[in-house]
Amino acid sequence: MPKSDNYTPQQREAAEASRREAIEQMHRDLAVKLATFDDRDAWQRWLKFASGFHQYSFSNSCLIYMAKPDATLVAGYRTWLAKGHQVRRGEKSIPILAPVTRLLPFEDANGNAVLDTNGRPITRRQMTGVRVAHVFDASQVDPPPQTERPQPSLLAGQAPPGLWDSLARLVAAEGFRLTRGDCGGANGYTNFATKEVRVRANVDDAQSVRTLCHEAAHVLTMDTADIATYGSQHCRGILEVIAESTAYLVTQAHGLDAGQYTFNYVAGWAIEAAGRDHDLHSLDEIIRTTGERVIAAAHRILTHTQPVTQSIEDVPTGEAITPVVRPGPGVWETVTAAGRPRGEVMASTTRSRGRSGPSLAR
Length: 362
Description:
Elements: H1 9-36, H2 40-50, H3 58-67, E1 74-76, H4 77-82, E2 86-87, E3 94-105, E4 123-137, E5 141-142, E6 155-156, H5 163-173, E7 177-180, E8 188-191, E9 196-199, H6 205-221, H7 224-228, H8 233-253, H9 259-274, H10 282-289, H11 291-305, E10 324-325, E11 359-361
Parallel strand pairs: 7-9
Antiparallel strand pairs: 1-4, 2-5, 3-4, 6-10, 8-9, 8-11
């Protein structure tokens, strides 16, 4: 095979096609791995547990916070019992306001009851007042439930040589300034108002490169419509799946195995996208349905970070870099209006350099 400078257009096209085929195969492998990865049982347990709890109103959330600031998940005595947990003797309940309702018939303009296809009156439930109800926090029951979803653990160790610099040049070419420093509890974020991508400084090279690759994927895949709908759990979940899947393919191609981090991260956002009552097989289904955007983004990044500058025989293969996975706080992305990230995480981007948008972090 000749050196790249001597490639014919046909040879260069063949090399690019070979790269895309390899990316597509890695993407298929990702879907298969997500269907069987180690933490799947943990996700099933969390989903089964969390899906049975409804969200409380703002006023009740305030009442819960004032009574027990460290509360994580609350339910009534019978609800806990039905889920296999017993409130411990002597625990003090948290008073909240529960609605008092009654069933009323739907009526037409003439005051007549509206009937369904079987001739039965259609009813609606109307709130007529409130009463005091009592709930208990997860910390007050035995056995202790799993109240937090599984989280990705930070990567430790070295990064593939040259990958950070290549990604940095790609981000700069899109009009963003790359910085290192505090990310407000996140691993990184992208600020569209200031055109800045920031990566947390106090993480190892392997994690910093993976984070930068994720942010670069946002920059290349999100447009104005994506940013506008990012607040939706479904859309936000899909966009995070796309960015993290892209980062996975790129880092894998460079020999950095971030599988367990990716599987937990993608699982969490895929579930947010599908909804808590969705079948768990949606994890790998969502990977497949987002495939085209992921593959296109990964191909574009790899064209920049792994340009065809050598003959096939000259490309070093070597052994994959397998980083140490160490326990660490998981980070999930959440959009804020602008500026520095608040709470957990943010992440958003746009393909148009002149546009401004929300700040995102992860």
